[in-house]
Design goal:
The complex is a heterodimer. Chain A is mainly β. Chain A has no helices and eleven strands. Chain A has strands spanning 2-5, 8-10, 16-22, 31-37, 43-49, 55-57, 65-70, 75-80, 89-98, 104-109, 113-117. In chain A, strand 9 (89-98) and strand 10 (104-109) form a beta hairpin. By secondary structure, chain B is an all-beta fold. Chain B is built from no helices and nine strands. In chain B, strands 1, 3, 4, 7, 8 and 9 form a six-stranded mixed β-sheet that branches. Chain B has a three-stranded antiparallel β-sheet with strand order 2-6-5, with no helix packed on it. Chain B is globular and about 40 Å long. The chains are: A mainly beta, B mainly beta.
């Protein structure tokens, strides 16, 4: 199970940290990712952290967002800085499982947390 | 604009067969990366329906099937039921973007 928290209303240029508490598996032995969905729009991949600690980001958030994890708390995080109106979305935490082509898909999802960037 | 192209909407009557297409390019589906499909019911998180092009997780009915050829993939739903009314997304990897990409989604309406 994945449970996100930390969403809310923030002003443009502000910061927010999302958390995702995992149970039933450990965040440091699986690839973990964040996927977002703007209101009424489709899914957009945001970031992934590999088991070895490597991190990757969508171009739209690179340099502003940081994915991390706390193994002792079995929790995934997304630090979001310099927030913009276009970052308004429901943010989902997801566990990624390997696919046969060497990359991954998302086999477990949290319920999502809403981030609203507005003045 | 999404990297993977899906029809925005489709409809079908109960019992019918519908197919949702997902068209990519040589940097994603055409490069040999797997395609995965998700179902998102209104107000809920997405759920994986098909992984690795044509595999169903346990619990997904065999009415759902996936295929892939060249730079495209398809999700077929046979024996359409009212509970299949949802948004469907395809997903793959893109080597020019170095990241996961999704289709824009297809809203399926059961008439």
């Amino acid at each position: 199970q994945l449970v996100e928290s930390g969403g809310g209303l923030v002003q443009p240029g502000g910061s927010l940290r999302l958390s995702c508490a995992a149970s039933g598996f450990t965040v440091n032995t699986d690839y973990m990712s964040w996927v977002r969905q703007a209101p009424g729009k489709g899914l957009e991949w945001v970031s992934v952290i590999y088991t070895g600690g490597s991190t990757y980001y969508a171009d739209s958030v690179k340099g502003r967002f940081t994915i991390s994890r706390d193994n002792s708390k079995n929790t995934l995080y997304l630090q979001m800085n310099s927030l913009r109106a276009e970052d308004t979305a429901v943010y989902y935490c997801a566990r990624a499982d390997f696919d046969s082509s060497g990359y991954y898909y998302f086999d477990h999802w949290g319920q999502g947390t809403l981030v609203t960037v507005s003045s | 604009q999404s990297v993977l192209t899906q029809p925005p909407s489709l409809s079908g009557a109960p019992g019918q067969r519908v197919t949702i297409s997902c068209t990519g390019s040589s940097s994603n589906i055409g490069a040999g990366y797997d395609v995965h499909w998700y179902q998102q019911l209104p107000g809920t998180a997405p759920k994986v329906l098909i992984y690795d092009n044509n595999n169903r997780p346990s619990g997904v009915p065999d009415r759902f099937s996936g295929s892939k050829s060249g730079t495209s993939a398809s999700l077929a739903i046979t024996g359409l039921q009212a509970e299949d009314e949802a948004e469907y997304y395809c997903q793959s990897y893109d080597n020019s973007l170095s990241g996961v990409v999704f289709g824009g989604g297809t809203k399926l309406t059961v008439l």
